[in-house]
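Lab channel / #folding
Pinned by the channel admin:
"Please post every new chain as: sequence first, then the structure tokens as a reply. Keep commentary short and put observations after the output so the thread stays searchable."

First post following the new format, from NK:
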Amino acid sequence: MRLRLILSFTLIVFVTLASIAIIARNSTAEEISRFMGGGGVFGLDSITARLESHYQTNHTWGGVDSILKTPGIHGQENAGGGGNPRSKFQLADLDGYVVFNTISGETGTLLSNQEIEQAIVLEVDQEPVGYLYAEGGFKISQEAQDMLVKRINDAALSAALIAGGISLVLALVLATQLLHPIRDLTKAASHLAQGELSYRAPVRGKDELSVLAKTFNHMASSLEKAETSRRDLTADIAHELRTPLAVQRAHLEALEDGIYDLTLENLVAIKEQNYTLERLVDDLRTLALADAGQLRMVCTPTDLSALIERTAQRFRASAGSRSIELTLPQPGACTLISLDPQRIEQIINNLISNALRYTAEDESIRLTLDCTNERARLTIQDHGPGIPLEALDHIFERFYKVDKSRVRSVGGTGLGLSIARKLAQAHGGDLKAANHPEGGAIFTLSLPFDKA
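Reply from TO:
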């Protein structure tokens, strides 16, 4: 890559300098000849231009005195005599007859061939129309012009070689600077490919490559977080599976050794642990399908308030045994909306179960349903210890352990809230958690209000 960049810069420099050299070589001689031939070296190019313009307008040299006698015209300050010899000149027409003369004042005479060769040729539309001659002549020898052209070309070539050398050095420096962050990214990618997910590429500056490095580091952080979550999930699943399996094995060994009698009562504990395993597997399957976007939804027109009341009735007995009051929304709070009643019931079941788990005796759990033209919002507020601030961003993670101050009185798989949020998102909604100002936690289920 570095060699390609240097070769590319070299090619650009070479093509640029070669183009300049060719153009300069072809045009320098012509421009010098035109400049010298037009009297530019003596500062008479402006007079030449005005004379040619006069002839182009009038098609004759008549009235040219008004131009040549104008005060301020170069060379006319000393027109009366003396000074620069080229301040005195003669203007002749195309046939060589003098029409204006500041040398002797005589007009109508004829310029000699030698004088014509030393005169400035005045042209209109690239056609000669007259001659401007001064004492000593305006022409510089062709040999002198060629020497001047050669010196200018040599100077241009030297400048081109110096500029080319400097450009190549700069190309080398720029290529090195440009490739340095790319090498850093390549090195970081190599470490990442070898499993070093904590490695980060250095970020330098604020250009596009630094943005690329930041994006790469963000990707590496996401991969590291995903890998950490995967390991934690594997460990959590193994832990959750180990407990019921250990209980089952202990009971089976006790039955086998005759410690427990083979009765229905002693088989109940094994059956309960088997049910726990089955529920954990079902929860994991639900999460896997939701992550893959393959969770099957059967949406039907549903009375959401009736669904909430029907689901909450199952917890009346459990709440009543602990003197916990369940406050439900008013019937008919929402019209029929399209949703999967079984999945929404699973969400409500998880949220109420979670609220009961952390609500103390003689407290209450309030369910509020609010419907607008766009969304339906169900809030469930408990009167427990609330959610620790450091846990708010992780409460919906799988198997996440909340602070010890919030002890569960009833065991669970640790996947309920994760499944509830996934099911809400599968409906196009969301599930959020917060602490209520009056105490306790509040969960808000938001669903798009698609009227059935």
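NK: The radius of gyration is 49 Å.
TO: also worth noting, Residues 7 and 225 are 42 Å apart (CA to CA).
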